[in-house]
Structure to design on (204 residues):
C-alpha cells in the first residue's frame, strides 16, 4: 500500500493492488501541471495572503525611528521575495521526484478501501491512496478535486521548524474529471461513494 512520506510526497510503488472486481475503473488521465499550479496558488493565497504583510511591516518598521523612503522600498522588496519564495515552493511540486508520479498519465481504480492510481493495471504498476488520506472533496463544473490531508510533522521536528512545516504545507490533490468515467452510472457510483464517506454533502 502506498504511504505518504514525512512531507506529503508519495513514493511510486511498482506492485499496487488493483482493487476489487467491483471497483470503478476509469479511462487514463493526466493531472496537468498548469492546472495544479493555478488551483494550488489560488488556495494558498486565499488562505495566506496576510502573511505577505509581515515582511512588509518588518521592512518599514525602522522608518518609525529613521524616516526614509528607503525603508518603504525595502519592505516592498521583502514582500516580493516572500511571494516569489512561497510561489516557487508550490510550482516545484510538479518537478520533485516524490510527487512526480501524481502528474503522470494513469487510470483510477476506485473501491471502498482505496483509490488506485494505475500506470499499467495489467502489470499492477501504480500506487494506492487510502481514503483516510483524503481530507475533503470539491465538486467543480468539470470534475472533482480530492484534497489530501496535511501530513503530520515528524516527532523529531520541533520548535520553529515544526511551526514552519505546519504553516507552509504545500497543498496536494487528485483531479478526477467527469470525462474519465466510462459511463454516467460509474460517475453516480463514485459520487455516492464520496457522500457515504462524508466527503460531499448528502443529497437533499
Amino acid at each position: 500500500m502506498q504511504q505518504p512520506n514525512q512531507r506529503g510526497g508519495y513514493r511510486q510503488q511498482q506492485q499496487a493492488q488493483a482493487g476489487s472486481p467491483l471497483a470503478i475503473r476509469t479511462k487514463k488521465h493526466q493531472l496537468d501541471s498548469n492546472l495544479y499550479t493555478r488551483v494550488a496558488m489560488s488556495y494558498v493565497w486565499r488562505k495566506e495572503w496576510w502573511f505577505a504583510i509581515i515582511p512588509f511591516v518588518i521592512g518599514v518598521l525602522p522608518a518609525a525611528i529613521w524616516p526614509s523612503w528607503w525603508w518603504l522600498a525595502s519592505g516592498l522588496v521583502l514582500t516580493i521575495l516572500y511571494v516569489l519564495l512561497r510561489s516557487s515552493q508550490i510550482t516545484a511540486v510538479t518537478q520533485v521526484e516524490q510527487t512526480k508520479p501524481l502528474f503522470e498519465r494513469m487510470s483510477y481504480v476506485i473501491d471502498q478501501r482505496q483509490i488506485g492510481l494505475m500506470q499499467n493495471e495489467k502489470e499492477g504498476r501504480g500506487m494506492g491512496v487510502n481514503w483516510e488520506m483524503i481530507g475533503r472533496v470539491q465538486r467543480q463544473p468539470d470534475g472533482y478535486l480530492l484534497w489530501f490531508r496535511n501530513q503530520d510533522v515528524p516527532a523529531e521536528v520541533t520548535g520553529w521548524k515544526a511551526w514552519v512545516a505546519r504553516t507552509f504545507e504545500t497543498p496536494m490533490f487528485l483531479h478526477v474529471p467527469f470525462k474519465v468515467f466510462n459511463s454516467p452510472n460509474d460517475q453516480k457510483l463514485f459520487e455516492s461513494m464520496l457522500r457515504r464517506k462524508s466527503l460531499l454533502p448528502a443529497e437533499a
Notes: Strands lie at 24-25, 107-110, 114-120, 125-130, 134-140, 143-148, 173-177.
